[in-house]
Design a protein that fits this description.
The protein is an alpha/beta fold and 296 residues long. The protein has a single domain, classed as Vaccinia Virus protein VP39 (Rossmann fold). It is built from twelve helices and seven strands. α6 packs across α9, α8 packs across α12 and α10 runs antiparallel to α12. It is globular, with a radius of gyration of 18 Å. The structure holds S-adenosylmethionine. The site of S-adenosylmethionine (SAM) has 24 residues, from α1 and β2. The site of S-adenosylmethionine has 24 residues, from α1 and β2.
């Protein structure tokens, strides 16, 4: 039963993207199938930089050793796996809207891991979580046809729900890409790259601005720490693009030439966006407020 309206991308739109096939994504993502901006340090390869990013969020959310952790937008399950195998977490629950991702995670039968094809808006756990991590899903929580006000309201509904899912004193670590400071939203929305991404790649999806995020969190979460690692995401996109190009023939066999070209174009646009500052990549550590307060 839907408890809250879902204002962002629908399950159909999410499946359009993620259900292109696990084998396709396996060609160009790292071994852990992590599909979000990595955190690079000197000497890292993609695998290492993705694990560094996962560990950042685990520490930021104080999830190490916790009994119950929620991963909102769990993808192919790399964080869930790390939580139960490396961090002593007893129960790690992942939410995704993609059947293909959920099947992939279930097939691994990791003890302590539960994956649900369910939106955060519908999630009603039996008890609150000790920590929440959400990486690369917030981008999907509003649509291009929404006004700024509607977007902030949609994000605020997410923060209120996350507040209710967390125990008192709990933390959430969030990662999202966002429109950078270099353009107004009107300019960004009018750009060919934005239209292409919204029409062809991430349907029913429009990223936030930093101001949207900060305004929407008021009353539910205090911002403890925030970083912008846009160049880390640029490097990740470049890496993905190179890996996909190297597997071109297999990719075309799996998804066809048109989808292959679409993905190369998307990775090139994203690389340029993060390099130029038209796109940002935020990692935000959030502390649950004691009482759910004012809404924007
Ligand atoms: C870019 S992937 C990131 C996956 C993973 N966190 C990672 O870093 O590899 C976005 C994920 O968000 C999920 N998602 C999008 N909207 C959602 C919603 N309303 N509720 C739950 N998950 C959602 C998608 O199904 C997908 O698993």
């Amino acid at each position: 039963m839907t408890t809250l309206p879902q204002p962002g991308a629908s399950a159909r739109a999410i499946r359009h993207h993620y259900d292109l096939g696990n084998d396709f994504y396996r060609l160009w993502l790292d071994r852990g199938m992590v599909y979000s901006g990595a955190k690079w340090a000197e000497g890292d390869d993609l695998e290492r930089a993705q694990l560094r990013k996962l560990d950042h969020h685990i520490e930021a959310a104080a999830a190490r050793g916790a009994a119950r952790v929620l991963d909102i937008g769990c993808g192919w399950g790399a964080l869930l796996e790390r939580l139960v195998t490396q961090c002593g977490v007893v129960s790690a629950v992942g939410l995704t809207l993609s059947d293909a991702q959920a099947e992939f995670v279930r097939a691994r039968a990791l003890p302590g891991v539960e994956v649900r094809v369910e939106s955060w808006a519908d999630h009603e756990p039996p008890a609150p979580y000790d920590a929440i991590v959400s990486i690369g899903a917030f981008e999907h929580f509003a649509r291009l046809d929404m006004s700024e006000r509607q977007k902030v309201e949609a994000y605020a509904a997410f923060f209120r729900k996350a507040w209710s899912l967390l125990r008192p004193g709990g933390r959430m670590s969030l990662q999202t890409f966002a429109y950078g400071a270099g353009r107004t939203r009107a300019q960004a929305v009018a750009a060919a790259s934005t239209r292409f991404l919204a029409d062809e790649i991430f349907q029913e999806t429009d990223p936030p601005t930093l101001a949207n995020l900060a305004e929407a969190a008021v009353g539910a979460f205090e911002v403890v720490e925030l970083s912008n690692d846009r160049l880390g995401y640029a490097r990740t996109c470049k890496e993905w693009s190179g890996r996909l190009r190297a597997r071109r023939a297999e990719a075309i066999d799996l998804v066809g030439a048109a989808a292959y070209e679409r993905y190369q174009r998307y990775l090139d646009f994203a690389f340029l966006g993060f390099t130029s500052g038209n796109l940002d990549l935020y990692r935000v550590t959030l502390q649950r407020t004691r009482r759910l307060g004012a809404t924007p």
